[in-house]
Amino acid sequence: MEIGNLSNTQEYILLGLTNERAIEIVLFLLFSVVYLITMVGNVGLIVLTVIDSRLHTPMYFFLCNLSFVDACYASVVAPKMLAQLLTGNKIITYVGCVIQFYFFLVFVITEQYILMVMAYDRYVAICYPLTYTTRMSWKVCILLVAVPYVYGVSDAGVQTYFTWTLSYCRSHAIDHFFCSDPPLIKLSCTSTSKKEFAVFWSSGFNLTTTGFLITVSYSCIITAILKIRSADARKKTFSTCVSHFTTVSIFYGTLFIYYLQPVSTHTIEQDKVLSVFYAIFVPMLNPLIYSLRNKEVKDALKKIIMRTCSSH
C-alpha cells in the first residue's frame, strides 16, 4: 500500500468489515434490508405525524425530528457501505471522507440533545399537566429543536477541524467501513493528544450533560408516577415514557462504550462491531420501538391503511 501524507491524497481505501467476497454479499443483503426498514420506518413516522392531526402535539413533533435525524445519519453511512459491499470498490475520495465524517457527527450529536428534549417534554407532561400547553408552546418547541441542530453543526465542525488538521503519513487504507475518528487517529504519524482530548471532552460533555438531564427528568417522572394512587393510572402514565426510555437506553449504552474510552484502548474489531450497531441498527430500532409500543401511532397507521383500502 502506498505510504504518504494522507491529507494530500485525493482518495482513501476503506477496508470495510471483511475481505471475504461471499461474506460481503451476505452482509450486503442483510444491511440492505436493515436500511430499507430504517428509511420506511422513519419516513413513515414523519409522514404519519404530518398528515394525522391527532399527532400534532409537542411529543410527536420531537419524535418527527428524531426520525429525521435517524434517517439522515443512517444515510450518511449505509449507502456508501452497501455500494462497497456490492461492488467491492472500497475507494472513497478525500472530500467524500470529510463530508461523511462531518455529517455523521452532526446527526449523532443532534440526536443526543433531541432525546434530552424528549425526556424534558415527558417530564413537563407528567409533572405539570395543567400548565403543559403553556410551557410547551410551539414557539418553545421550535426553539428546543433548533438549538440541538445548531449545536450539532458547530460541535461537529470543531471535531472535523481537529481531525483533518492532523498529519497523516501512514497507509492510505482506513481500517473501517466509514470515515470515523478512532481509525483516522491511528493513522496519524504526529501527536494526537490534542485531538484525543477534544474527542474525550466533546463526547464526555455531550453524553454526561444530556445523560444527566435525562436521568433527572426520569427521576422526577418516576417520583410523580409513584404518587398516583390508581395502579391503572400509574401504568397508563408510565407507558407514555417506555418507548423513549428504551430508545435512550440503547443509544446511550452504545455511545458510552464507544466514545468514553481512550482511543488508544480501542480495538479495530470492537470499533467496527459497535459502529455497525449504532450507525446501522439503532436508526432502524427507534421507529419500530415507537410504532410497536405507541397506541396513537398504531391507530394513526390503521386509519391511513383503512382509508387507502376504502379508496380502492
Q: What does this entry look like structurally?
A:
The protein is globular, with a radius of gyration of 21 Å. With 312 residues, the chain is mostly helical. It has a 3-stranded mixed beta sheet with strand order 2-1-3. Helix 1 packs antiparallel against helix 2 (58-87). Mean pLDDT is 83; it is low at 1-7. The chain has 10 helices and 3 strands, in the order E-H-H-E-H-H-H-E-H-H-H-H-H.
Assembly type of the shown chains? single chain
Low-confidence stretches: 1-7
The profile of the biggest β sheet is: 3 strands, mixed
- Strand content of the residues, in percent? under 5%
Q: Tally the helices: what do you get? A: 10
Computed Rg: 21 Å
Morphology: globular
Please give the share of residues in helix. Answer: over 70%
- Number of β-strand runs: 3
Mean pLDDT: 83
- The H-and-E topology, N to C, reads as EHHEHHHEHHHHH
Output the strand order for the largest sheet: 2-1-3
Structural class: mainly alpha
Distance between the termini: 60 Å
Care to give the gist of this entry?
With 312 residues, this protein is an all-alpha fold. It has helices at residues 21-51, 58-87, 94-127, 132-135, 138-164, 181-187, 193-226, 231-259, 268-293, 295-311, and strands at 11-14, 91-93, 173-174.
Describe the secondary structure blueprint for this structure.
Blueprint (H helix, E strand, L loop, with lengths): L10 E4 L6 H31 L6 H30 L3 E3 H34 L4 H4 L2 H27 L8 E2 L6 H7 L5 H34 L4 H29 L8 H26 L1 H17 L1
Parallel strand pairs: 1-3
Antiparallel strand pairs: 1-2
Helix pairs in contact: 1-2, 1-9, 2-3, 2-9, 3-5, 3-7, 3-8, 5-7, 7-8, 8-9
